[in-house]
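Z., the sequence and structure:
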Amino acid sequence: MFVIIGYVIVCFSVFGGFAMGGGHLGALFQPLELLMIGGAGAGAFMVGNTTTAIKATIKALPGIFKGSRYNKALYMELMSMLFEILTKARKEGLMSIESDIEDPHASAIFSKYSNVIADHHLIEFLTDYLRLMVSGNMDAFQIENLMDNEIETHHHEGEVPAHCIAKLGDGLPAFGIVAAVMGVVHTMESVGIPPSELGMLIAHALVGTFLGILLAYGFVGPLSGLLEQKLHESTKVFQCVKVALLASLNGYAPALSIEFGRKVLFSTDRPTFLELESHVKNSKNK
């Protein structure tokens, strides 16, 4: 939503300011300039990225228009679920949660938390490491190292769309100059026409530079920063699970383990101790 609002503000400020200064908006409507800039940008994007990177970027783009899923409500659900699963493992033994982690959607514990179980990657991460804990063949240091490597891999994969968009944005001003040069070439071919028409051709050529810069810094470039921010948010949830599971593996009680997880969250999304305690109690009574 904020992306669309931001785009509207950019357009209103640039085109509105131009119109209020006496400019004619029709002069800025140059479809051929857009074709040259957009087409060259799309072609360079395909040349400069692998098929995997292109697919990842296309897949990531729809998410930029949606709000973040990683908020306080989700984290409270996640930590309530962790508390229940760790409490069951502590009271009844690790083998008691084997059926829960083998089929989370059929589990009485997991199925209570719809927002969490809807995140396939998060559930897969959680159940994989609970399964390793159940196996009993790895110590806390080995599991922590494995978690760090998986989180790092997730982060690197998530950076691909952001880097692709950033490179595309960096190239658009140059393609705008290319379009402008092509316009200048056309103008030089037409030096014999009346000055009024010649001036129009020069204006059309300059629009190419304008559009390249506007598209780069007003539309495409900001998406790269937004994708990076969303990546950091999606990584934080894995770190929360990691810290809570490792605390449990090191012998801490479930209540203290989820407190470890709560502490690693961003302050804007972190529930207070009392909020989390109240939510956990209410979840247990459901």
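The chain has one domain: 30-286. The mean pLDDT is 87.

Let me know what you think.
H.
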